[in-house]
């Protein structure tokens, strides 16, 4: 028996460390480059059975599907608001459609924006699971008010506000829940479920709208079918949340240790020493925070690293919206008309394919790349690559303008721009689409996570509204300059990521939320963009866990 093992006190767990990696400074620049291009095999998770945690995250991410479906079903150009049956039922003219559409968008986003700060006390007092359940019920009530044959736009608008309240709360709490439930080795992958569900929701809304428009008669059922499906999806989410477990991290903050232990064992499908060490690490961090800064006060958010992280969360989702991808999702037919000419059927078909490309790209990212490269590398490289596609699109449109009239044959220049847009959305769903959701939760310790994520998601809703409202005017007045503007934004985002972003991949939430990780950024040096979590960090995590278990905490 190893002499180190003999020295361990009863009840402690000995974890044999792996062979340490050479320091980054000892690697040549060629070796660093090769680690990016031909990376090592990604280390396997500590737990062999990932089904329970994947199930929890997948059920919670039905909220992401609702987000995408709700965004697309009404606001998508060519959606429910364009149906004659909808206009006849609510008695408004085509001339009023823009006004009605604007209110449908703004009222829902207003409700979501208001719900973000309101979700903080709800999540803190009643837990993540209960907050998501309440959000799904509130959303369902709003969807019912939109679906009933009221013949009243006022009733429909109230339903939009209520559904926005439920949706806003869920978009704050679900990323926290996913981050807190996931093992650190695959936290990026499971956290990216939210974006994948969002893209699937938008894709579904495109084809449901198209299906009822083509295959159903112009009656009340034509518009009620796509709107009413929201009730089904939110009901499935509510029922699903009754079957999963509460976040062990939240339970520990409430001193419900036995329940936290049972939940962690269930979600990890294990009762081995790894679970005990993880539980001990969480407990140590939560108690250290509690004793060091007991009594949370709002002035804490105005000082030091906490303010930096709040600013980073706000900027993160501002950057996500400034890439232009959300505007493409809402107004893809108008964009494709600008690129290929005024053929409504062709534009709708290209938009449907656009939605499919988003789903496939995001699925590929979750399966292949979510935790393979560092967050910083994915975000920075994604921004620069998106900038290239947008600038190329702008250059082609500037030099080879497309005839605004409908044409049977699409010219090669138009085909090239469509290919660039499809490439753009693929890159987006490999970087700025999915990653901000888990990354925002990783920036904060347990003490500040509710507030931090609420600030970030509030930014998402605020600038979602800004770019959604402004995009039609940009397309009309700027034409090809719209793509150039998105490209310039992407360049700024790329450099901002390199200079200001911190790295959180492979760290436990407790370590990722420490001010030292934010200030020093020691986990992601240039040239070590792809790296496995260091054996020293894994060993220190487990060593800390053993010490806590020995002390009886």
TrEMBL record:
Protein location: Membrane
Keywords, ordered alphabetically: Membrane, Transmembrane, Transmembrane helix, Transport
UniProt cross-references to Pfam families, sorted A to Z: Sugar_tr
Keyword Disulfide bond listed: no
Parts of the chain that traverse the membrane: 50-69, 132-151, 157-178, 190-207, 227-244, 310-331, 351-370, 377-397, 417-439, 451-475, 481-501
PROSITE patterns: MFS (PS50850), SUGAR_TRANSPORT_2 (PS00217)
UniProt GO molecular function: carbohydrate:proton symporter activity
Domain Major facilitator superfamily (MFS) profile residues, every copy: 56-505
Protein name: Putative mfs quinate transporter
Family: Belongs to the major facilitator superfamily. Sugar transporter (TC 2.A.1.1) family.
Biased segments, Polar residues type: 533-553
Cellular component aspect of the GO annotation: membrane
Region annotation Disordered: where it falls in the sequence: 529-553
Membrane topology: Multi-pass membrane protein
InterPro entries (UniProt xref): MFS_dom, MFS_sugar_transport-like, MFS_Sugar_Transporters, MFS_trans_sf, Sugar/inositol_transpt, Sugar_transporter_CS
